[in-house]
Specification:
The protein is elongated and about 65 Å long. Helices cover 68% and strands 2% of the residues. It has one domain. The N and C termini lie far apart (76 Å). Helix 4 packs antiparallel against helix 5 (76-90). By secondary structure, the chain is mainly α. A hairpin with a 3-residue loop joins strand 1 (140-141) and strand 2. The chain is built from nine helices and two strands, in the order H-H-H-H-H-H-E-E-H-H-H.
């Protein structure tokens, strides 16, 4: 299993990184990581798109879900049926936000292995015959950043980007649904994750090679950009639908 993982994920990503390193003028490892991050993000775009869409949909459903929980708190069977009916009517799959992330997980682990050993010249023995061996990868990126060592500044920036990404997914306070609690368990967990995950990101990131943290930071920033694009399109669509509804509404009443 480990050999298959290395053959189909780790080695191809390592070769792609070195390919970018070779063709980029100046052979800057930091720029090569930027290109690699964009390539991986494009390859996983359909999965990340579905994951973001599902997470946002579930967030928006929280007030309605809490109202159902309160109404049928003493009838577990009816509660389950009503929840399933809500998911069906809103066209939301509660598992659809997790599955794409699980599929992406092997890629994240592979990238971790690439950046953990990628700056080691010994790993260059794994290059394909058509990828030129540069002899070694210069870990100094952008002329000043040593990507082989931990970097607390990059870790802090990544934690801030993580906070920004999570904050965007959290729904704005919805109009109160009769019977719903102001703060349900899910909302409390979301708030905890909003602050807890960035802290964990900084703590863990401060111990990892800066090459991996640079990838993590770039991936998070690209995900934020993807979320902003998706949410802006959704907001514009809702605005257009409301305008159409207002225009058509006078025609609903028969002429007197």
């Amino acid at each position: 299993m480990i050999e298959l993982f290395n053959t189909f994920l780790v080695v191809p990503l390592l070769n792609l990184l070195v390919f970018f390193y070779n063709v980029i003028p100046g052979q800057d490892l930091g720029v090569a990581i930027i290109f690699l991050t964009v390539a991986i993000k494009l390859a996983l775009y359909p999965l990340s798109h579905q994951s973001i869409k599902s997470q946002k949909a579930l967030q928006d459903l929280q007030p309605k879900m809490e109202a159902i929980k309160k109404q049928f708190k003493n009838d577990k069977e009816r509660l389950a049926k009503e929840m399933m009916a809500l998911y069906k009517s809103e066209k939301v799959n509660p598992l659809s936000s997790c599955l794409p992330l699980l599929i992406q997980l092997p890629f994240l682990i592979a990238v971790f292995h690439v950046f953990r050993t990628g700056v080691d010249s010994a790993s260059l023995d794994l290059l394909y015959s058509f990828v030129a061996n540069p002899g070694e990868l210069n870990p100094i990126a952008f002329g000043f950043l040593n990507l082989s060592n931990p970097n607390i500044v990059l870790a802090a920036l990544t934690g801030g980007a993580q906070f920004w990404q999570t904050k965007m997914l959290m729904s704005k306070r919805q109009p109160k649904v009769p019977g719903a609690k102001d703060e349900d368990m899910m909302a409390t967990m979301n708030k905890q994750m909003l602050y807890f995950m960035p802290i964990i990101t900084v703590v863990i990131g401060a111990t990892l090679p800066a090459a991996l943290i640079l990838y993590w930071l770039l991936t998070t920033v690209l995900t934020v950009a993807q979320q902003k694009l998706m949410f802006s399109k959704k907001g514009q669509k809702e605005k257009d639908d409301n305008q159409v509804e207002i225009i058509d509404k006078p025609n609903e009443n028969p002429q007197q």
